[in-house]
Write a structure and sequence with these properties.
6 helices, 8-stranded antiparallel β-barrel, 32% helix, 343 residues
């Protein structure tokens, strides 16, 4: 019997908490700040405008440019669920910040003050009915009553304004064309020096020009999150016995590179296993015992970020190095591993 009574009280308490929670959430509103990139800007604009017309969404403001569109909208919960599904299919979400604002405490304070003012007005009315209107003190009470009436009016206006925000979703949506010109792109600069190890295997090494393999150590400096970087280092032959005085045994290299994330694989947003493609363009100062020369090169690559956060980045890549001179004897695969850190 005692267990049944305890269970009954627990059930009542749970229902009471649920009702209190619902009552507390009566005057809550949600603010969403979102930015998306879309490959079909015209289609995204048309879809959003059609949704606003068909669902009679409250359009607070709209700012439209050639490749940028900003909406400020207000809608209820059911409309927002449909809107959120629509936006998710239009492009890639760069950011989405959701903030719930509760006005319940403010509403309770206004209601409490209104009750107090109405009681005060009622007391003034009772006193005025008992006093002679010609008496000087009644004029003072009348002015006090008028002042209370004005305060009641202002509080009622405030309560109406707060009620209009109940269960409302206010959406600030920015839509950008992903194929825009560089002036519309946002570049985030970083300061991440690091080191890179590279192993280079020429496909067709030739006597007097190249050896079977080179290994190199480089300073790798990342300066955008994109990511763009500079390289400075040297390749050295791993087998000097295969070379003569004219063979290139040391190749000092300086270059610039960029890596690009796939829009279909998270755009590099994960901490682990981000795939990317890129390129490295640079100049090598090649030298042997008896000659020196300069060689421009291009090296397209594909790689993977093993781990990254705000402070470190560890990745590996394979690149195919294509020199513009001695192409047949020097072109080949390079395998690289790098580590960068915030300085």
């Amino acid at each position: 019997m005692i267990r049944i009574v305890l269970l009954f009280f627990a059930l009542c308490l749970s229902l009471s908490n649920s009702l209190v929670a619902q009552e507390t959430d009566r005057y809550s509103s949600t603010v969403i700040d979102q930015e998306i990139l879309t490959l079909d800007f015209s289609l995204a604009k048309e879809s959003l405008n059609r949704f606003i017309r068909q669902n009679k969404i409250s359009l607070i403001s709209q700012n439209e440019g050639k490749s940028r569109l900003v909406f400020n909208l207000r809608m209820d919960s059911s409309d927002y669920q449909l809107f959120d599904t629509l936006v998710a299919g239009l492009g890639y979400s760069v950011r989405k910040n959701v903030k719930t604002v509760s006005n319940d405490q403010k509403v309770r304070e206004v209601e409490l003050e209104l009750n107090y003012l109405r009681k005060k007005r009622s007391d003034y009315q009772d006193l005025l009915q008992k006093l002679d209107p010609k008496v000087e003190s009644s004029m003072g009470l009348w002015k006090e009553k008028m002042n209370v009436d004005e305060r009641i009016f202002q509080k009622e206006k405030e309560l109406v304004a707060l009620s209009k925000k109940a269960n409302v979703f206010e959406v600030n949506l920015e839509v950008n064309d992903e194929t825009t010109s560089p002036q519309n792109s946002k570049v985030s600069f970083v300061n991440m020096p690091g080191m890179e190890y590279s192993y280079w295997i020429p496909e067709s090494p030739a006597w007097g020009i190249s050896t079977t393999a080179y290994q190199g150590f480089f300073l790798k400096y990342l300066f955008t999150r994109g990511k763009s970087y500079g390289l400075l280092g040297v390749y050295k032959s791993t087998n000097l016995s295969e070379s003569d005085s004219s063979t290139f045994t040391d190749l000092f290299s300086v270059g610039f590179g960029q890596d690009f994330y796939s829009r279909y694989l998270g755009r590099g947003s994960r901490k682990y296993l981000n795939l990317y493609s890129g390129y490295n363009l640079g100049l090598m100062f090649a030298s042997g015992s008896s000659r020196k020369t300069e060689i421009f090169y291009l090296a397209p690559s594909i790689g993977i970020e093993w781990y990254k956060n705000k402070y470190v980045l560890l990745d590996s890549k394979a690149a195919y190095l294509v020199p513009f001179s001695y192409n047949l004897q020097l072109r080949g695969w390079t395998f690289n591993t790098s580590f960068n850190f915030v300085f």
